[in-house]
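Changelog-adjacent note: as of this version, every example in the card shows the full chain rather than a window. The one below runs 320 residues end to end.
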Amino acid sequence: MPMYKVKPISAGEIKIDLPTCMYKLPNIHAQQGNSCASEHALQNGEVDPAVKALEARQDEIMRKLYELKAAVEGLAKTVTTPDADLDLTVSSSLSCQSTTTFKGTSDLDTLLGKDLGGLRDIVINANPAKPPLTLLVLHDLLCQRYRILSTVHVHSSVSSVPPQLLSCLGPRHADSYARQLFQLGFTLIWKDVPKLQMKFNIQNMCPIEGEANVARFLFRLLAPHSSDPAIATLVDNWVDTAFFQLAEGSAKEQAAVLRALNSALGRSPWLAGLEFSLADIACYCCLLQSGPLSSAPANVQRWLNSCENLGHFSPAKQLL
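Full-length structure tokens:
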């Protein structure tokens, strides 16, 4: 029982409206005559030039970001190799292949292994003091069959590179940031190396050294190995002769090779018979590097003209 009993001072329950927010502000989007909208609103539905300039700037930034992404992905293959300190991306180029049908996909899968989603990239380290003319010719031939993403870089071990070496794989393509559009990557790194090196799969494959061996690897992507062992041996013999005697031999050895070339070309139009082969590419490029060809024998001169008429050797001739 309570000690005191007091009557209520109010009748019934009192309803109090509690606030649902701390501060209330008017909705500026619901107001008429919005200053922000009126600032950019023009007659006939036109957009303010300032807005157009901002959109163009954004598109340019996105394009550069895509190119940077493509360059980083290209360099990622060399992270676990001594080439990890690449410091300058010079150019990225897509060599011309206008058709959208990839005619050589099955061949690439057979020769290089199944594509698991990433671009298969051939990385070549070459010394700018001795440009690999044979590889430039093979690059041009590969571009006629596959869709190639070609890239040129400069290694930190090289202080300067002539402009013609920076553009030896052709101009940069606008779609170079979209690596999924290409079948094969061809990355050329100008580096101070004693011997040309090629790396394709750094996990499962050791580097290939020497321009002759790299040329053999690349030519396999263009044509299967000859089923005739005599022709295959003849091609290999001419390739070794080109690089070890024409390119690096003495004047006496070069003269002997010219006589052998003249004799072989007197019996067939090409060095390995009736078909153009790696032997012709190697010997032609090594002859270009050895000096003037005006004094070459008649059969060799005819063969040189036939090679030039093919149009594949213009990238090599531009570097001389």
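Structural remarks: Strands lie at 88-94, 120-126, 148-154, 184-190, 197-199, 208-209.
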